[in-house]
Design goal:
about 500 residues, 2 domains, seven-stranded mixed β-sheet, five-stranded parallel β-sheet, 14 helices, 21 strands, globular, binds adenosine-5'-diphosphate
Length: about 500
C-alpha cells in the first residue's frame, strides 16, 4: 500500500481530524492506489480558516509577483508532466495521450493567467464633474471554494485555481473523490513553486466534504464542475447564503454531418469525440445528427472504425480507449443501453462490457434513434453515440438546439454558407466547424447555455469573472463639495 493521500491545510500535509480514510482505485485493474484522508466539516473549516489568514498578505502581494509564482507552476508542471500523466491514467483510466493533454491545459492556463498578473485590466471613463477622476478596478473576493470532478483532474481545477490565485484570492479545493492522489500531486507543484502557505488548501473527500465547503459562510464564491443534479443542489444551497456560484454541468453534444462533408475527416473526428476519454468528457459527442444522403455510408465507416479501437489499460501506449471511471459509471451506461434498446433504437456496434477486470465497455453506436428518445436527450457519460437522421441543415440545427443542455456542437460541411448559418443558429456555448466537439483552448471562454450552466464562463477573457469583484473608484480633486451639474459652472468659474 502506498502512502496516505493527505489534506494540505495552511502549508502542512495532514490527516483528517477523524483519522478516517477511503480508498482511491485504478479502474483498469480494480486495485487500490492509495488510502485517502476523508475530510469532514472540521477539516474543511480549518482549511477555510487557513485560507482566510493567508488571504491577508496574498491580496497585498503585487499581481506581477503572483504571476511569477504561476510561471514557476507552469515550468514545474512541464517538468513533471509525465509523472502526473501516469498517475492520472492509473487513477481515472484515460489513456496517456489524453492525460498528457490534461496536464498541458494546466500549463497553458498557468502561462495565460501568469500574464494576467501584468494586465488584470480595469478601465477609466470620463466623469460628470470637473476635477474628478473615475476608474473601475478588478478586486479579489476573499476565500473561494472549488469543487471539481474526476474526468479532467488537473485541467478543470486549473481553470478555476489559476485565475482565482492571480486575482489575489485564497483557495480551498475539494477534488473529485475518484482522483485524490493526482490532485495532491498537482497541489505539490504549487507548494514547490513557492506559493505561500494557506493560499491554496486541499481537502479530500466525497459529497459531504463538498457540502461543508458550500456551507461555510467565509467562502464567498463557489466554482463547481460536475453533474447537473449536484450542481443544482450546490446552487440552491449557496443561494441561501447569497454566494456567487459558477456552474459547469452536463452536456448532450452533437456533431452535424451534411451530405457534402469530407467523410474521412468526419469519421476521425466523430470517433475521437465520442469515444475519447471513454465518452466521459463534458464536451464528448453523444449525438450524431446526419443528413439522410450520407447516413448509411457514414454509419458503416463509423462501425468499422469502432471495431478497430483497442481497449485496455491506458498506460499501454497502443491502447485507444481506457475503462469507465468506476462501477457506478459502467452501471449507468448499461442502464442507458437497455433503455435505448427498449425505445426501439438499433444497436449497430458495441453494447456490452468486456469480460475482463476493470470497468471496460465497448464503443457503442445506436442507429434509428428518434429525437424524443431518452438516449437522444439525457447525458450518459460513456462511449455511446446515437445517430439521428435529418433532412436538411434547418432540421439539424433544430435537433441540436432542442435538448436541455448547450455546451458544445459541431458541423461538418464543405459549404461556407451552411457553416456560417450554423455558427449563427447553434445555441451552444462552443461551436466547431469541421472539428469534433472537444478540444477547447484556454484563451477562449468555456461553458454552456441552458442546463449546462448558470450563464458564467471559465477561461479566456471571462476567466477572471468568477473570482473578481468590480470596484468603482472616484477621486475628486476639486477641493470642494461637488453635488450637481449646477456646481460645474461654479468650479469652472473659479479655475
Ligand atoms: P461526478 O460523479 O460526475 O463527478 P458529481 O456532481 O457527483 O459528479 O461530483 C462533482 C463534485 O461534486 C465532486 O467533487 C463531488 O464530491 C462533489 N459533490 C457531490 N455531492 C455534493 C454536494 N452535495 N455538495 C457539494 N459537493 C458535492
Amino acid at each position: 500500500m502506498v502512502e496516505l493521500v493527505r489534506n494540505y491545510i495552511g502549508g502542512r500535509w495532514i490527516e483528517s481530524s477523524s483519522g478516517e480514510t477511503f480508498d482511491s482505485y485504478n479502474p483498469a485493474t480494480e486495485e487500490s492506489i492509495a488510502p485517502v484522508a476523508k475530510s469532514g466539516v472540521e477539516d474543511v473549516n480549518a482549511a477555510v480558516q487557513a485560507a482566510k489568514e493567508a488571504y491577508k498578505n496574498w491580496r497585498l502581494t503585487p499581481a506581477p509577483r503572483r504571476g511569477e509564482i504561476l510561471f514557476r507552476v507552469a515550468a514545474l508542471l512541464t517538468e513533471r508532466k509525465e509523472e502526473i500523466a501516469h498517475l492520472m491514467t492509473q487513477e481515472m483510466g484515460k489513456i496517456l495521450t489524453e492525460t498528457r493533454g490534461d496536464v498541458q491545459e494546466a500549463i497553458d492556463m498557468a502561462y495565460y493567467m501568469g500574464g494576467e498578473g501584468r494586465r488584470m485590466l480595469g478601465y477609466t471613463a470620463p466623469v460628470e464633474m470637473p476635477n474628478k477622476f473615475g476608474m473601475a478596478l478588478k478586486d479579489s473576493v476573499g476565500v473561494v471554494g472549488l469543487i471539481t470532478p474526476w474526468n479532467f483532474p488537473v485541467a478543470v481545477p486549473s481553470w478555476k485555481m489559476l485565475p482565482a490565485l492571480i486575482a489575489g484570492n485564497a483557495v480551498v479545493w475539494k477534488p473529485g473523490e475518484d482522483t485524490p492522489a493526482v490532485s495532491a500531486l498537482f497541489v505539490k507543484v504549487f507548494e514547490d513553486a513557492g506559493l505561500p502557505s494557506g493560499v491554496l488548501n486541499l481537502v479530500t473527500g466525497a459529497g459531504e466534504t463538498g457540502a461543508a465547503l458550500v456551507n461555510n459562510r467565509d467562502v464567498r464564491v463557489i466554482s463547481f464542475t460536475g453533474s447537473t443534479e449536484t450542481g443544482l443542489k450546490v446552487y440552491s444551497q449557496a443561494a441561501t447564503m447569497g454566494k456567487k456560484v459558477t456552474l459547469e454541468m452536463g452536456g448532450k453534444n452533437a456533431i452535424i454531418v451534411l451530405d457534402d462533408a469530407n467523410l474521412d475527416l468526419a469519421v476521425e473526428a466523430i470517433t475521437w469525440s465520442a469515444y475519447g476519454t471513454t465518452g466521459q468528457r463534458c464536451t464528448a459527442t453523444s449525438r450524431l445528427i446526419v443528413q439522410k444522403g450520407v447516413k448509411s455510408k457514414l454509419v458503416e465507416a463509423l462501425v468499422e472504425k469502432a471495431k478497430t479501437l483497442k481497449l485496455g489499460n491506458g498506460l499501454d501506449e497502443s491502447v485507444n480507449m481506457g475503462p469507465l471511471v468506476n462501477q457506478k459509471a459502467r452501471d449507468k451506461v448499461e442502464k442507458y443501453v437497455e433503455i435505448g434498446k427498449g425505445e426501439g433504437a438499433k444497436l449497430a456496434v458495441g453494447g456490452h462490457r468486456l469480460d475482463t477486470k476493470g470497468y471496460f465497455y465497448a464503443p457503442t453506436l445506436f442507429t434509428e434513434v428518434a429525437r424524443e428518445m431518452r438516449i437522444a436527450r439525457e447525458e450518459i457519460f460513456g462511449p455511446v453515440l446515437s445517430v439521428i437522421e435529418v433532412n436538411d441543415l434547418e432540421e439539424a440545427v433544430e435537433v441540436n438546439n432542442e435538448v436541455a443542455y448547450g455546451l458544445s456542437s459541431s458541423i461538418f460541411t464543405e459549404n461556407v454558407n451552411a457553416a456560417f448559418k450554423a455558427i449563427r443558429d447553434l445555441t451552444t456555448g462552443i461551436v466547431y466547424v469541421n472539428h469534433g466537439t472537444t478540444g477547447a483552448e484556454i484563451q477562449f471562454p468555456f461553458g454552456g447555455t441552458r442546463g449546462t450552466g448558470n450563464g458564467m464562463r471559465e477561461a479566456g477573457l471571462a476567466g477572471l469573472d468568477s473570482f473578481t469583484e468590480w470596484k468603482s473608484v472616484y477621486v475628486d480633486y476639486s477641493g470642494r463639495l461637488q453635488r450637481a451639474q449646477i456646481d460645474t459652472e461654479a468650479v469652472l468659474k473659479s479655475e
